[in-house]
């Protein structure tokens, strides 16, 4: 007999509606009930999945239709949802917001996984006028199943009554509401929260969960989202003839990597985690992975750790393989300049520097076209890079609308560095990149 478990996507008409807050509260509420819940996140965001772990003890897995394909998403979902008591997928932006129109949107992921949608609506400044909004979302794409609505920032029973009547007239179940909760705002991802600071939001998440138990019909939500466990093939095991030793940077300054990337690396070899902030030198390895993070918040500590900087430099000069993304790339440069204009020496593998002065947001999906293969990824940073005019990009980079952008992919010996966070969660992708770093 096929087991049924609650499975659903939390979506919203717009960004900043409260998806993350309600997702975290619901994850904690289910965990408090003894229901082991697997979280996922639509899109490339690497901060929300870390909050998922604070809420329920499990990493959120990214499901992204731009960076990977349908088969990979189905396999990832089936692998990590197996034997769980429930599955909660947090959407991205508005329900239909994709890289191009609705391509890659929360709605598209809901179709791929055949999941019901729980819509979160910010009702702070609206009453019965929410009815046409709900009607539009219900009827714009009738292949979607909007199983219910949770209203956010509703403080009175009379306010909720208007919203309840709107749901009744439109034909979408109202599953309850969440009041405005003082001091319960989950911060934006650009604020530079360390892993320890994220843990500080444990009490905030608990407060949201307790409030939701009072005003949200969680039992009805679970009942209306019961589905058979997915029987799709799980992630295949990689068989490699030669195992390699891999070091992955992970500390307060470097911790933005997709779970799938690290899991794929583990199938290629033995993974050891190290800290550029605290360790004196690299472990003895064949490959170093320097993911992104917030090195700009730890510039002095990184710069003062001369033995690690020299160890990285020596490894690169000796032909060691390094994959560096965003913050990892900044660390491999000559220096990082902070917002006040103070300059701190880094590993000096590349001759460029990066600066946090005159910060400007660079954001978007990226397709990286090398000579004989391509990778997908995402760019998100405020720093700028300079003094790299003598370094030519080894790849051509395009955005989601297929327009070329000026993001540079650097290579020095067997070191690859870029602002782009690559998706490397499939065997063929990682193999291609490692082949590039062999000379």
UniProtKB/TrEMBL annotation:
CDD domains associated with the record: CobB_N, GATase1_CobB
Q: Which UniProt keywords apply?
A: ATP-binding, Cobalamin biosynthesis, Glutamine amidotransferase, Ligase, Magnesium, Nucleotide-binding
Q: Which organism is it from?
A: Lutibacter agarilyticus
The UniProt entry, under Gene3D superfamilies, shows: 3.40.50.880, P-loop containing nucleotide triphosphate hydrolases
Spell out the protein name for this chain.
Answer: Cobyrinate a,c-diamide synthase
**Could you say which EC number(s) this protein's record lists?**
6.3.5.11
MF term (GO), any: ATP binding
**Gene of origin?**
cbiA
Q: What is known of its domains?
A: Comprises of two domains. The C-terminal domain contains the binding site for glutamine and catalyzes the hydrolysis of this substrate to glutamate and ammonia. The N-terminal domain is anticipated to bind ATP and cobyrinate and catalyzes the ultimate synthesis of the diamide product. The ammonia produced via the glutaminase domain is probably translocated to the adjacent domain via a molecular tunnel, where it reacts with an activated intermediate.
Q: Which cofactor does it need?
A: Mg(2+)
Tell me which residues make up the CobB/CobQ-like glutamine amidotransferase domain: 245-426
Involved pathway(s) = Cofactor biosynthesis; adenosylcobalamin biosynthesis; cob(II)yrinate a,c-diamide from sirohydrochlorin (anaerobic route): step 10/10
Source organism superkingdom: Bacteria
Question: What does the record's miscellaneous section state?
Answer: The a and c carboxylates of cobyrinate are activated for nucleophilic attack via formation of a phosphorylated intermediate by ATP. CbiA catalyzes first the amidation of the c-carboxylate, and then that of the a-carboxylate.
The family database entries (Pfam families) matched by this protein are listed as: CbiA, GATase_3
Alphabetical list of PROSITE patterns matching this protein? GATASE_COBBQ
